Amino acid sequence: MLLIRHCQSSGQDPDAALTEIGRKQAEALAEFLSDYPIDMIVSSSYTRAQQSVEPFAATVGLPVHLDHRLTERTLSGSPIDNWREVVRDSFGDLELRVPGGESAREVLDRGWAAITELIDGGHRFPIAVTHGNLLSLILNSLDSNFGYDGWESLSNPDVFALKAAYNGRLVSERLWSE
User: Number of structural domains, the chain?
Assistant: First the structure.
């Protein structure tokens, strides 16, 4: 399956739309995805994630299924100045929680539930469109070397493949980034 980080957006709110650059990225992403036998599209319910995959979905005639478990991590109940520090520290302390926010463990639990459901759902080649913090925590759970620096290196959009290794464990491979 493929895990995709959304294209460039106008903000962090759930209803933030793609920028003009983001819309062009979504078109390029659609062209890239056309090389894969995708038969299921699941997206975060946030507007920027949906808009990132809509050009591809329209091209191949597949619906975009929404899954709230793929939404971005709620880092805090209110804006915080040290949000980058919280993100960084979360890779070492999965239970770290800012008031009103989710811990990395909670994000991983819901993210993996959605991904596992897709993997076990009998689909030939599903894709999931999500957000940077959730994506980086998933990748970190597969490879501890993908931590804060990996999160910082993510682009909008970004595409990773999840595939079974020789030992049956899942591994990730970066396929494309903007």
Answer: 1
